């Protein structure tokens, strides 16, 4: 007896004349397929790949239609039969254009070494491969490969030329040949202060006028100078351990502060706070608004403090000493928060980056072999470090300062000269000859 749950599928042919269809539909165009049981089961299994000839499949916004996808472009085989294997001869130009575009797109996406899809059947789009070094100069939106067929590249910039000789030289008699002193500083008002012996001279870079600010007498000498940020007041450190504050516009001494037992060779301003470093191994924090000579004392160095520099946000103070140590202090601590002991000579050259917060550069003395120049500054005009050899001094370079516009540096050496170099010119001045150098060319004396 047959199983009642399984019954064969019976399909009867119905004449088109007996079908109940609308009158507007032509009857001869109506055709019904006769399905066998195996055809019906096969259609159910392959329903995702079956394309009905009587209607068009429209894709959802997020789900594409497989029947309208060009899988051959990405080496993915499709179960759907191709619509046409022999394109008309009239479309030859269009096919060539499409092939060229596909080759350019494939090269831009996957690299110039990617083989053509006809040479590597069955390969997937995404595959693991070894990482290659890529250039960052390409204009291609797909990547940074050096060479792309049909993709233009930006021209390589020519190296910027740095003048190797100074455009101006100032004779500076009695400029001390002492590595641990800081006798040159440039103000925000474009005035250069120089300590010569027991006197301080001011040189106006705009008018080339020289003014004698002070004379400490035969029993004292200038060991350091430092301009306040506003450029109106100058701090002078002396060999007797004192710090004097001078009003530069009136050439008048405003205040004298004590606290150090030995010479003051380093000075650094932070708004109304003045930091002074001495041979007595200490750093004194002085608030010029307070009545006391100093408000706090920083101890940590084992030898003379010869370098001081506040960060641009006035939060951290970097100090270098003859003990080959570089310390970083904050506003609220009396002990260093960071210590660097990699140098093998006295750390005098200290500079904070004006472009990246927390980036600090330092250089040591001759035995350190970590810096070419004894002075180091970072210009606001450049975000990268530039190295160049500037020749002219006949003795070692000890002092360095940068102009307020960031274009010119001045160096002082044991040959008792100050030399001016236009090493960071603005883009406008690079296209023309340096007007400053042409008008100031020559050799004069600062006093």
From TrEMBL:
Keyword flag Cell cycle: yes
Listed GO biological process terms: anaphase-promoting complex-dependent catabolic process; cell division; positive regulation of anaphase-promoting complex-dependent catabolic process; protein ubiquitination
Region (Disordered): 78-97, 137-164, 428-447
Cross-referenced SMART domains: WD40 (SM00320)
Single GO MF descriptor: ubiquitin ligase activator activity
WD repeats: 215-256, 298-339, 390-423
Transmembrane segments: none
One Pfam match: WD40_CDC20-Fz
Keyword Cell cycle: yes
Keywords: Cell cycle, Cell division, Mitosis, Repeat, WD repeat
Domain of life: Eukaryota
Domain (CDC20/Fizzy WD40) ranges: 170-372
Family of this protein: Belongs to the WD repeat CDC20/Fizzy family.
Protein name, UniProt field: CDC20/Fizzy WD40 domain-containing protein
Native organism: Hevea brasiliensis (Para rubber tree)
């Amino acid at each position: 007896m047959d199983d009642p749950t399984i019954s064969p599928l019976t399909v009867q042919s119905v004449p088109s004349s007996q079908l109940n269809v609308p009158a507007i539909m032509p009857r001869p165009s109506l055709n019904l397929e006769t399905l066998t049981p195996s055809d019906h089961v096969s259609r159910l299994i392959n329903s995702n790949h079956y394309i009905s000839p009587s209607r068009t499949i429209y894709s959802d916004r997020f789900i594409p239609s497989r029947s309208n996808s060009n899988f051959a472009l990405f080496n993915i085989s499709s179960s759907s039969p191709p619509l046409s294997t022999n394109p008309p001869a009239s479309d030859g130009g269009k096919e060539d254009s499409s092939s060229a575009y596909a080759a350019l797109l494939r090269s831009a996406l996957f690299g110039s070494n990617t083989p053509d899809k006809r040479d590597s059947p069955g390969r997937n789009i995404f595959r693991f491969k070894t990482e290659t070094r890529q250039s960052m100069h390409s204009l291609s939106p797909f990547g940074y490969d050096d060479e792309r067929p049909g993709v233009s590249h930006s021209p390589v910039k020519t190296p910027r030329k740095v003048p190797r000789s100074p455009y101006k030289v100032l004779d500076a008699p009695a400029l001390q040949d002492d590595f641990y002193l800081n006798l040159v500083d440039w103000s925000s008002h474009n005035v250069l202060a120089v300590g010569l012996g027991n006197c301080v001279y001011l040189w106006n870079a705009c008018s080339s006028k020289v003014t004698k600010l002070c004379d400490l007498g035969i029993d004292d000498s200038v060991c350091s100078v430092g301009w306040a940020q506003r450029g109106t007041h100058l701090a002078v450190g002396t060999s007797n351990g004192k710090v004097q504050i001078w009003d530069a516009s009136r050439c008048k001494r405003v205040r004298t502060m004590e606290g150090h037992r030995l010479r003051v060779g380093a000075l650094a301003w932070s708004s109304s706070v003045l930091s002074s470093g001495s041979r007595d191994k200490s750093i004194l924090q002085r608030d010029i608004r307070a009545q006391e000579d100093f408000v706090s004392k920083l101890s940590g160095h084992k030898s003379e403090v010869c370098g001081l520099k506040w960060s641009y946000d006035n939060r951290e103070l970097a100090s270098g000493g003859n003990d080959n140590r570089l310390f970083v202090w904050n506003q609220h601590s009396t002990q260093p928060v960071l210590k660097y002991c990699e140098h093998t000579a006295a750390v005098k050259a200290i500079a904070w980056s004006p472009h990246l917060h927390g980036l600090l550069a330092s250089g040591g003395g001759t035995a350190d072999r970590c810096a070419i120049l004894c002075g180091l500054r970072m210009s606001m005009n450049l975000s990268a470090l530039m190295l160049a050899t500037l020749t002219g001094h006949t003795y070692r370079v000890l002092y360095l300062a940068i102009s307020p516009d960031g274009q010119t540096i001045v160096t002082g050496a044991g040959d008792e000269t100050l030399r001016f170099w236009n090493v960071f010119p603005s883009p406008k001045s690079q296209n023309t000859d340096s007007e400053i150098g042409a008008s100031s060319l020559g050799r004069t004396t600062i006093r």
